[in-house]
């Protein structure tokens, strides 16, 4: 049976790569699909698969006059977000995964998931999806092959990655590719596992159809396996957007910024500066992931390994993110938004009047005023980056862009001031390491609880968090021209729960200060926490309709809040045990002594 399977696989395959053929045959022997389809990434394939997806109910065509090329997908209601409690790092030793990851011994994981995968594709098609994370031919780029029984996954992967025949050609006979196996299974949360085997460059995902769990190039390869490879090979895989900011004088500065999921990375990466910023321009290189490595000139270079955006829909409108609205006007897959009677999509926070009647994200009739949300809070769009009106011309550059500033930003209703600059690299790593953020709907679980989320990588670091932080510290030695590091918080609130800082386009004001600091153009003021904008020559607040008291509250540093914060940081460092980097413990002690105890 296995030999017949191997022969059949080899016969249909558009590659002679022996490792790839043997692996596909082995996985097919286990999962027993009715047929195997090698995806070539062509337009004809997209058309055929879209038609099939419409026929089998996976996709609902939207009004093609209003939204050409757009479709709606409704997921199983039990499968709407990443499942961190069902996500595992499978390393031979538990300590290699560290205290912030779930761990399973590799043999145990292969056996456990093997039982679930056994025969799971009977009656189904196995799609073989060769894909690249990063521009083809870039030294940063990694190749993966995902085997999946979901046409929704294939259609998403062709937007999110460079996918198809060209990738197989690039791979040639090499065995250097990530082996990804996915089956939607029976979408049963009790039989759902997302397992990573860094030593085998392998990912097995069973029982989910949700993007972050199943588009294996994204969180699984580009971050969890990527961070592991980054440590081995001397680079960084980060949960960061990348943008270029160009001044009226034509100077472009590239910035990478880490924010936890659903905290506005896409909005920041596509920001439109306020009208006072005539001649300034923001361009997007990436909105979620940055791979960064030292370049030949001593600077840190970054690429966006993705080719599309898998963005949070609710709250997106022509005020918060006009460029995203343009991006999703065509050729976009929507997941779990509401449907209007005329076949368009709707979500909470969309422009215009709330429609009287809708079909909600679960396909049920919905009426204006209903207590339930029409769109799921973690409903998503999948759109090609080429739709973005402000896509950077460098987004396909194999060499990436030189990063001058790194920003760490959490969602904090108190404690953390609007912006500060780290004193140096080690202090900057400390700021990133001690990030806290209130949880969002991007992951299953309670929303709005502060948790430590170092570098916004808590759910995505593929090895011991202590080693990861040490790797960041060690990178200093291989980057002669270090980026400057900053911390921001757009989300501070007054006592009535109102945001103190307007955010969105006005974040340009903070960005301008950061750019000026990078180029050594503005003086600054030292505080206990870091350098902050001065009252004079500080943030440009011209034209900003916000009470001065709100600005001072948003930028304030309250020592009592910081004493509480330090306690919570201590709990986190204790969790890292002996792997908590010495240099960061020292930073903590210094801050404690500055705070007076
Ligand atoms: C994402 C996430 O989908 O972080 O990007 O959850
Ligand atoms: Mn993300």
Task: Describe this structure as you would to a colleague.
- Helix content is about 30%, strand content about 20%.
- It is of the alpha/beta class.
- The protein has three domains: about 1-60 and about 85-235, Phosphoenolpyruvate Carboxykinase, domain 1 (3-Layer(aba) Sandwich); about 235-310 and about 390-555, Alpha-Beta Complex (Phosphoenolpyruvate Carboxykinase, domain 3); about 310-380, Beta Complex (Phosphoenolpyruvate Carboxykinase, domain 2).
- Strands 1, 4, 5, 6, 7, 8, 9, 10 and 11 form a nine-stranded mixed sheet that branches. Strands 12, 13, 14, 15, 16, 17, 25, 26 and 29 form a nine-stranded mixed sheet that branches.
- The protein starts with a helix and ends with a helix.
- Bound molecules: oxalic acid and manganese (II) ion.
- Manganese (II) ion (MN) binds next to loops.
- Manganese (II) ion binds near residues 239, 261 and 288.
Secondary structure blueprint with pairings:
Elements: H1 2-12, H2 18-31, E1 35-38, H3 43-55, E2 60-61, E3 71-73, E4 87-89, H4 94-97, E5 102-103, H5 106-117, E6 125-133, E7 142-148, H6 151-160, E8 162-163, H7 165-171, E9 178-183, E10 193-197, E11 202-206, H8 211-214, H9 217-233, E12 236-238, E13 240-246, E14 252-258, H10 265-269, E15 281-286, E16 290-294, E17 300-303, E18 308-312, H11 322-327, E19 333-335, E20 338-339, E21 345-346, E22 357-359, E23 365-367, E24 380-384, E25 401-409, E26 419-421, H12 425-433, E27 436-438, E28 450-452, H13 465-475, E29 484-488, H14 507-518, E30 525-526, E31 531-532, H15 548-554, H16 559-576, H17 582-595
Parallel strand pairs: 1-6, 3-19, 4-5, 4-10, 7-9, 9-11, 14-25, 25-29
Antiparallel strand pairs: 2-3, 6-7, 6-8, 10-11, 12-16, 13-14, 13-15, 16-17, 17-25, 18-24, 19-24, 20-21, 22-23, 26-29, 27-28, 30-31
The site of manganese (II) ion (MN) has 3 residues, from loops.
């Amino acid at each position: 049976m296995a030999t017949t399977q191997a022969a059949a696989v080899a016969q249909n395959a558009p590659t002679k790569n022996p490792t790839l053929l043997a692996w596909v045959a082995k996985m097919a022997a286990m999962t027993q699909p009715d047929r195997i389809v090698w995806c070539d990434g062509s337009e004809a394939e997209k058309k055929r698969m879209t038609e099939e997806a419409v026929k089998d109910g996976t996709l609902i065509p939207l009004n093609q006059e209003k939204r050409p090329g757009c479709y709606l997908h409704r997921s199983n209601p039990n499968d709407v977000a990443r499942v961190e409690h069902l996500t595992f790092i499978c390393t031979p030793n538990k300590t290699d995964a560290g205290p912030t990851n779930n761990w399973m011994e590799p043999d145990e994981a292969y056996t456990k998931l093997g039982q679930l995968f056994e025969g799971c594709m009977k009656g189904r098609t196995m799609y073989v999806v060769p894909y690249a994370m990063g521009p083809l031919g870039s030294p940063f780029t990694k190749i993966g092959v995902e085997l999946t029984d979901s046409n929704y996954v294939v259609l998403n992967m062709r937007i999110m990655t460079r996918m198809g025949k060209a990738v197989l050609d690039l791979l040639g006979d090499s065995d250097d590719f990530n082996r990804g196996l996915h089956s939607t299974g029976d979408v049963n949360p009790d039989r759902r596992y997302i397992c990573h085997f860094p030593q085998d460059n392998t990912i097995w995902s069973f029982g989910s159809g949700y993007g972050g769990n199943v588009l294996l190039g994204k969180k699984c390869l580009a971050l969890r396996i990527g961070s592991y490879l980054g440590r081995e090979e001397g680079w960084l895989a980060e949960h960061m957007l990348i943008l270029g900011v160009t001044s009226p004088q034509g100077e472009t500065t590239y910035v990478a910024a880490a924010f936890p999921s659903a905290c506005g990375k896409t909005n920041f990466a596509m920001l439109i500066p306020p009208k006072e910023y005539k001649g300034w321009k923001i361009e997007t290189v990436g909105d979620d992931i940055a791979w960064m490595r030292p370049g030949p000139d001593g600077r840190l270079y970054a690429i966006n390994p993705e080719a599309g955006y898998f963005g949070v829909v609710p709250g997106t409108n022509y005020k918060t993110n006009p460029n995203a609205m343009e991006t999703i006007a065509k050729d976009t897959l929507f997941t779990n938004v509401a449907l209007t009677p005329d076949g368009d999509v709707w979500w909470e926070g969309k422009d215009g009047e709330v429609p009287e009647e809708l079909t909600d994200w679960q396909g049920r009739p919905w009426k204006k005023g209903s207590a339930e949300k029409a769109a799921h809070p973690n409903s998503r769009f999948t759109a090609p980056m080429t739709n973005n009106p402000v896509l950077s011309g460098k987004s396909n550059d194999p060499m990436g862009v030189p990063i001058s500033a790194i920003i760490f930003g959490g969602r904090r209703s108190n404690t953390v001031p609007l912006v500060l600059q780290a004193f140096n690299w080690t202090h900057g790593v400390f700021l990133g390491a001690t990030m806290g953020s209130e949880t969002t709907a991007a992951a299953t679980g309670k929303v709005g609880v502060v948790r430590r989320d170092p570098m916004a990588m808590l759910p995505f670091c593929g090895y011991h968090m202590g080693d990861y932080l040490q790797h960041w510290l060690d990178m200093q030695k291989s980057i002669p021209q270090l980026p400057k590091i900053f911390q921001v918080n757009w989300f501070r609130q007054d006592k009535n729960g109102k945001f103190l800082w307007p955010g969105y386009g006005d974040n340009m004001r903070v960005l301008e200060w950061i750019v000026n600091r990078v180029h050594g153009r503005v003086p600054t003021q030292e505080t206990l926490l870091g350098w902050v904008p001065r009252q004079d020559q500080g943030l440009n607040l011209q034209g900003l309709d916000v009470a001065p008291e709100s600005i001072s509250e948003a930028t304030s540093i309250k020592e009592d809040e910081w004493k509480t914060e330090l306690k919570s940081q201590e709990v986190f460092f204790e969790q890292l045990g002996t792997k908590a980097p010495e240099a960061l413990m020292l930073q903590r002690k210094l801050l404690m002594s500055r705070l007076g105890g």
